[in-house]
Every structure is written in C-alpha cells, then in structure tokens.
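Researcher: Sequence recovery benchmark, item below. Answer with residues only.
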C-alpha cells in the first residue's frame, strides 16, 4: 500500500487532469503550426557551438517545474481567457516577422506562446509559481550574434592596451595588429560571444537556485555578464603574450582555442565557487501534497470555461500561420523601370578612364540593381559612384537586411569593413560611413536604406516599415542606396566630393525609386 500511495502522490490531482490535457493539446497544435520556427532553433543549436546549450534549456525548465510540484498540487488550476490577449499579440508579432523574414522575432514569439498557453489553461496562480521556469525558455532562442562586432572591438581595444602596458611595441589597424614577432587579427571566434551567452544562461540558473533575494540574483547575473567579457579580453591578451614570448611557436593555432575554453571554464568555476559564499537556502518544501487530502471538485461550469478557452486558443494560434500563408501566396509583380548604368546627374558623367575597376556591395537577392562610377571635370580626377539594389517579395527571394548581407560581403574573405560613424547631409538625410579594404583597394562607402518612400540608416526601422506595409496588404519594397569613392589612404580627399555628389543625386534617386514602386 505504501508504494501505491507514493505513486498516487506523484500523479496530479483529479482537478488537474482536464487542464493538463487541454494544455498538451494546445502545445501540440502550436508545435505543429509553428514547426518552422522551432525547427530553425534546433538547426541553429546543431550548427553553431555558440548556441549548443539550447538543447539543455527545455529539460532544465521541466526539471525546475518538477521541483515546484509541491506548490503546484496545492493549487486548483483555473483557465484564464485574458491570456488570449498576449497570445494574439504574439501571433501578430510572428506574422509581421514572417512577412519580412526576421528569424529571431519569429522564434521569440513562438517560444513566448508556451507561457501564454500555460496561463490560458492553468491560470494565473500556476503561472506565478512557474514564472522562472517559463521565462528560462527564452534562453532556447539563439539570440546574440549582434554582439559579435562590438565584442570584437572591445577585445581588440583590451588586448592592444594591455600589450602597451606590458611595454611591447604594437601597431594596430582596425581589428589587426602587429608585434615584432608576428601579426594577429581579432576574428569572430575571438569575440567571446559564445562565452558570454553560455555564462549568462548558466549564471541566471545558478542565481535562481542559490539565492532568494532579488538583489543578490541581479548582482550575480550582472557578474555573469561582465566577467566573461573581461575574461575574454584577458584571454586574448595572454594568448598574444604566449605567442610573442614563444616566438609564435605556441598559442598561434588550434591550441589557442583549446586554451581559451580551459581558461573560460576556470574563470566560470571560480565565479560560481565564490558565489556559494553568499548562498541563501529556503526551508525545505514538501515534495507533494498529502494524497489523502481532499481536492476541490471540478464543476461542469469550470469544464465549460476550459473547453471555451481551449477552442479560442486553437483558433488564435492557428490564425497567425494561416494569414501569413495567404499573404505569401500573392504575386507582387516584377520590378521594372530601375534602368541600368551609372547615375550621371548634373555635371557628373561616366568617366572616360576605363581603368576604374567595377565595385558593388556584398548584398544578395536584389530583384534589380544599378550603379557605376561618375566624375566631374573640375574634381581633379576624383571618381565617385552610386549603387542601388531594389528588393521586393523578400520572403520569397531573400531579404535586404540580414546576416548574409554586408558591404564587404561575407563571401569576400580578403575584404574588411569598419564603421566610421554617421553623417548628416545638408537636407537632413543621415548616412552611415564605412571604410572598406580589399586587395590593393580602399573605399570610403556611405550607406542608407529606402523603404516605402522614407530614408533611414536603421535596419530595425526598415524591418518595421516593411512588416507594417505587408500586414496592411501592401508590398515590402525596399532599396539599398550606397555611395562610394576609392582613395589612396586619405579618405578626407574624396569625402568632400562624395558628399557633393550624394546631396545632388539623392533627390533624383528618391523620385526614381518612387516611380519604380508605383509601376
């Protein structure tokens, strides 16, 4: 009898059976309807070492739910139809992201639907108990690649400054620097983003388990963010010093990656060990409720509310993929009227010098492109250029704003790109400035985007405008506008001419793009 009693104590009370069945049904429907978003997350976990921890997030969340079973069985689940509001908003966010192909927003929306469904079927009291396990699911979303470039800059700054303090001469050019014994370069693998993301995921879980007060949890999570960033800078410095002191015999190849993980593991171990000195323990909670205690009876009106909430939940969840599928089936037409050749405006004409090598930005998937070099007779031989790449039906042909598209191009391993800041032209238009370096060439490049008649330098604004246009039945037409000039190491000499050309050409380009949009 003791064994039967123990098994009964591990099973949910009778008033949980129907709500759990409704939750399982809704979760199954969500997994099927949004399978592309969930499968894209799994594919990223499998492909990228940075996000391999994603495989552990769901099991950890389930384990945390299991630890809360003593509190849960004492509750009476009650459906809450207020959850339909965030569920519908998440569906809307997913639709907008689907229409303009923003993977991370789709994944976040699909993941956040799980807590919304728990709230819908089990109620507010249950969600309050499970708030951390449900929130922890967000770490399953592969997010954080946008930190790669700033972390690379910080690593380079930290390393160069530390080497200078050591007294060793060092010359830096962007993310590359040279010591008397050899050359070094900060690449994506050196950014430390994988250390940072792993540290935050582990540190948040550790803070939740080890501490009870909010301030201690926040302090430890803050340390989990700061420590790996500083540790990665120290790791890069130590690798450079080992290579320098050994005459580039050690720490210059694969061994420096192995050394990096060992160093990171040691730092995280020390951080967690020190964190135990301030741990807070709660008095033990019962593993489960008394199996002989009476449980609230489930009345038919409650079952009716549960059935109604479940049906509405299915309809709301199914509406998002159904609407996006209908929108994506429409044919938005071909792009016509952009023309070809250089944008020769006013006194700028195609140069007679045919030795100028053609150049175009590393953006793919455009439906139409146009550009080329121009120059003025009075500009002492300074040639400038403009390039326009026009995009339409980006969900089908490819997005303008995406990880694959950079000015230098991800398929150009011998090109480097460095942002120089922004600049506001006389007519109030803002451009982003970049320096590009390739084999025997240096270019000063300005970039901005045209979307729905508006100019912006913000990729996020581009995506929002595209999504709103498509959501309201319009098109996602957008264009990349690039102005460029080649120089011999002194960009100031050509920037004045580039500004003059851009300010003269932009009004014509905008009018031309408006005409292409209406055709």
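Model:
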């Amino acid at each position: 009898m003791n064994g039967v009693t123990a098994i009964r104590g591990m099973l949910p009370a009778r008033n949980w059976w129907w709500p759990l069945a409704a939750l399982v049904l809704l979760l199954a429907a969500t997994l099927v309807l949004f399978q592309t978003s969930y499968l894209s997350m799994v594919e990223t976990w499998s492909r990228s070492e940075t996000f391999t921890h994603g495989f552990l997030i769901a099991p950890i969340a389930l384990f945390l739910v299991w630890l809360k079973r003593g509190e849960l069985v004492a509750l009476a689940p009650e459906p809450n139809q207020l959850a339909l509001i965030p569920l519908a908003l998440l569906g809307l966010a997913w639709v907008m992201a689907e229409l303009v192909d923003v993977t991370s927003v789709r994944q976040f929306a699909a993941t956040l639907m799980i807590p919304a469904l728990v709230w819908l079927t089990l109620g507010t009291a249950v969600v309050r108990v499970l708030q951390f396990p449900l929130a922890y699911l967000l770490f399953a979303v592969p997010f954080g690649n946008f930190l790669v470039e700033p972390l690379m800059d910080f690593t380079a700054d930290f390393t160069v400054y530390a080497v200078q303090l050591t007294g060793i001469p060092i010359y830096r050019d962007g993310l590359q620097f040279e010591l008397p014994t050899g050359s070094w370069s900060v690449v994506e693998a050196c950014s430390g983003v994988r250390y940072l993301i792993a540290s935050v995921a582990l540190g948040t879980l550790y803070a939740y388990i080890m501490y009870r007060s909010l301030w201690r949890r926040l302090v430890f999570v803050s340390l989990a963010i700061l420590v790996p960033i500083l540790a990665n800078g120290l790791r890069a410095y130590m690798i450079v010093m080992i290579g320098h002191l050994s005459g580039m015999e050690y720490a210059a190849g694969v061994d420096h990656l192995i050394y990096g993980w060992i160093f990171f593991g040691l730092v995280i171990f020390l951080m967690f060990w020190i964190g135990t000195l301030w741990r807070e323990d709660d008095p033990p909670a019962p593993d489960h409720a008394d199996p002989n205690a009476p449980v609230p009876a489930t009345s038919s009106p409650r079952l009716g509310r549960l059935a109604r909430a479940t049906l509405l939940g299915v309809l709301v969840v199914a509406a998002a993929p159904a609407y996006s599928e209908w929108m994506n089936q429409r044919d938005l037409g071909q792009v016509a009227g952009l023309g070809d050749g250089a944008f020769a405006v006013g006194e700028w004409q195609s140069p007679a010098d045919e030795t100028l090598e053609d150049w175009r930005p590393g953006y793919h998937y455009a439906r139409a492109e146009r550009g080329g070099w121009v120059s003025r007779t009075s500009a002492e031989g300074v040639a400038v250029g403009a390039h326009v790449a026009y995009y339409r039906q980006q969900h089908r042909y490819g997005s303008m704003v995406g990880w694959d598209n950079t000015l230098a191009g991800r398929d150009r391993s011998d090109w480097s790109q460095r942002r120089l800041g922004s600049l506001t032209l006389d007519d109030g238009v803002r451009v982003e400035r970049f320096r590009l370096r390739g084999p025997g060439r240096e270019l000063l490049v300005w970039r901005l985007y045209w979307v729905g008649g508006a100019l912006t330098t913000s990729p996020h604004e581009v995506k929002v405008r595209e999504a709103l246009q498509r959501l309201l039945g319009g098109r996602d037409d957008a264009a990349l506008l690039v102005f460029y000039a080649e120089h011999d190491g002194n960009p100031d000499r050509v920037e004045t001419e580039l500004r003059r050309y851009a300010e003269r050409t932009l009004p014509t380009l905008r009018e031309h793009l408006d005409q292409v949009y209406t055709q």
